[in-house]
Write a structure and sequence with these properties.
Helices cover 21% and strands 54% of the residues. By secondary structure, it is an alpha+beta fold. The protein has an 8-stranded antiparallel barrel with strand order 1-2-3-4-5-6-7-8. A hairpin with a 7-residue loop joins β6 and β7.
Length: 180
Amino acid sequence: MRNSPTSRILESEADRIARKDITMNAKRIFIAVPAALLVLGSGMAHADQTIDEAGALACVNDKWDEKELEKGHKLVDFGGRCVAIPTDPAAPKYVEDCAGKYEYMPDGSWKGAGSCTWTFKDGDKVYDTFEEGSDLKESTYKITGGTGKYEGASGGGTYTQDMLTDTLAGGKYKGTMQLP
């Protein structure tokens, strides 16, 4: 029966199934290994690490409520959003939601302060506070914590912004983030 047509068909079918199984396992490996590397490599933040940050900002003012206390003296409630576009293409991008208060004086000087929440694609967050003013060449931010891989983050840096319209601004940022 070894050389019968039925045995050749059965052996041929067994060989085909074995080859298909090997092919399927190879396909799974070719898919699983890059996927695992992507997952393992996508966490740009690691413990005991200092991350240098630099990039561009594109921002929109959602809220700008002015109250004039006296001629030339204004208080402003601010709310806005930004997209941070890192200089390093491998660095994670994030969006910022910010709120703050500004004071404009009759002599033309002004100052502002507030806080922002950075949200990354994976849902992790970083929190910061900011200070701006007419007496500063660059505005400053201070990282005050975070969630997920950014829990306990600290650091800070500087940024500049130019108002392009009444509601749109563009700028640059640079700084460092320390992870515990």
